[in-house]
Amino acid sequence: MFNHIPGLLFNPRQEWKKIAHLSDEALKRQLPYFIVMALIPAVGFYYGTTQVGWSIIGDKVYRITESSALPLTVLFYAAIVGSVLAVGYIIHWMSRTYRGDSFRIKDFVLVGYAMTPVFIAGAFSFYPIFWLDIIIATAACSYMIYQLYVAIPLLLHVPEERGFLFASAVMMMVLVLAVVILGATVILWELGAMPVFIDG
Fold this sequence. Notes:
The chain is mostly helical. The chain contains ten helices and two strands.
């Protein structure tokens, strides 16, 4: 399950070809991958914001209280897992239009493996450096997009040009999902899931 990580990071096209040759039963066994890997950014966020803290300008360090960070961590983890499931469902729904060889668990596994750069980048949140984390998060999200463009034609067995259109349509839906998550974050903050900061 985790043996695909080096290939996905350093030789994604070849690794996706290997994943595409897995049987349906073998693909189903990969399902826990993203459930486990989503813990990296969530736990990193909790530790980094409560124990280490971060500074934006100067020497002033900001931290979040453990009691306010815990529900945020749970919500963060749920958002990551929920996003993988939502995008997987979107791929499954769109596969009829693009005539992809799809079933739900395969689509969840596809998105979960495509998220590998984001999961790995989440390790940097254990020691948050604001400017560095922004650069790493941007690079990880860009690489995740590339992974989707490589994976969709290979895993769903659609021609390259149709796969490009398929992946582009999925990315448009991902942007809509990102806006929904941002809106939900604002609402949850207003309902009491707001971080309590400790400065100093």
